[in-house]
Amino acid sequence: MSQNRKRSRFEIGTLIAPTTILITIMFLLPLIYFLRVSFNQNILGGFMESAWTIENYIGFFTDPYFLKILWNTIYISIAATILTFVMAFPVAYILARMTSKWKRVLIALVVFPLLVGNIVRDIGWIAFFSENGLVNRILTQIGLTDGPVQFLETPPAVIIAIANVVLPYMILSIQAVIERINPALEEAAIDLGASRWKVIRTVVIPIATPGILAGTLFVFILSMNAYTTPLVIGGTKVQMMAPALYAQITEVSNWPMGSAMAIILIIITLLSSILYLRVIERTTSGSNNTTTTEVKG
Q1: Residue 292 and residue 185: Cα distance in Å, rounded?
Q2: Which residues have a Cβ under 8 Å from the Cβ of 280 and sit 6 or more positions away?
Q3: Burial label, 158 (beta-carbon count in 10 A; 0-12, 13-18, 19+)
Q4: Is residue 264 within 8 Å of residue 60, measured between CB atoms?
Q5: β partners of residue 48
Q6: Which residues have a Cβ under 8 Å from the Cβ of 62 and sit 6 or more positions away?
Q7: Is 80:170 a contact under the CB 8 Å cutoff?
Q8: 116 vs 42, 97, 295, CA distance in Å?
Q9: Whole-number Cα distances in Å, 236 to 4, 29, 72, 153, 223
């Protein structure tokens, strides 16, 4: 029996080893390199000197320019996550409860945007939000505005565009969990006199919390690290961390500061995710005992 276990562990190890080595080489080593470079000292002219200094981190947290970029990133990521959840939940609920043959077609339509590059979708949003775009034409024709309104290079435009990019992930995450909920629970609550909204609020959402958490956390991480969308839609007026650190490396040739920004972005994303999970864990642990409470009324 022990020999079989050892053989099984060896077989599992041989299957995991190539992936582990690949992840180490392609992910961890670049992070280690960026971490080391972040302590180097930048020299005017696009050069850097090997050193062990934290001046790049101090410079980031004491410079209003970088702090504004960090605030934009956090604010836009949270807003995009909330907007994505609001848009995704009704669609996910309908798909989860749909039994017609069109369900697969609708799921395919949800997944289809993932097959299109972000830059293509962002260009579509440029045409949508531009001065001669659809939104401005409608507003002008119905008389709400006298001329074109500046939508591009504004936080709302970036939030909407990012939410559009990550929306399929949220829909699929929530739908997968709602499908596992027995519809009889909702029918029983309705029979007891609960409204549809109260059934969703007191029955569906508490049980679907794992899917909601997975979707919102995934969307938040993607939003924090978004590059193409804020670069194309936000331009120079609405900057986020990923485009800003890339500009530090490629345009300013300040590798130490760009590396420090990359490390800061990773740390903030991880800490935010851990804090988010801790808070939600406490919330759900307190509400688990109330999922079977009375829904009458």
Answers
A1: 10
A2: 209, 213
A3: buried
A4: yes
A5: 42
A6: none
A7: no
A8: 39, 27, 43
A9: 61, 31, 12, 7, 18
Q: What does the alpha-carbon distance between residue 240 and residue 116 come to, in Å, rounded to a whole number?
A: 23
User: For residue 68, which amino acid is it?
Assistant: K
Which of 13, 31, 15, 107 lies closest to 266, judged by CA? 31
Amino acid occupying residue 125: W
Q: What letter does residue 233 receive in the DSSP assignment?
A: I
What is each CA distance from 88 to 168, 174, 201, 233, in whole angstroms?
8, 8, 15, 22
With CA atoms as reference, report the closest residue to 59 among 256, 242, 265: 256
Report the alpha-carbon distance of residue 106 to residue 67 in Å, rounded.
42
Write the single-letter amino acid at 128. Answer: F
**pTM to 2 decimals?**
0.83
Give CA 189 to chain center in angstroms. Answer: 33
Measure the CA–CA gap between 201 and 215, rounded to whole angstroms.
Answer: 18
Per-residue pLDDT of the chain (297 residues; tens, 9 = 90+): 466 666 667 667 777 778 778 877 887 888 888 899 999 988 876 678 888 889 999 999 999 999 999 999 999 999 999 999 999 999 999 998 888 788 888 888 888 888 888 888 888 888 888 888 888 888 888 877 777 888 888 999 999 999 999 999 999 989 988 888 888 888 888 888 888 888 888 888 888 887 788 888 889 999 999 999 999 898 888 899 999 999 998 888 889 999 999 999 999 888 888 887 777 677 666 555 544 444 444
- Phi, psi at 102, each rounded to 5°: -80, -5
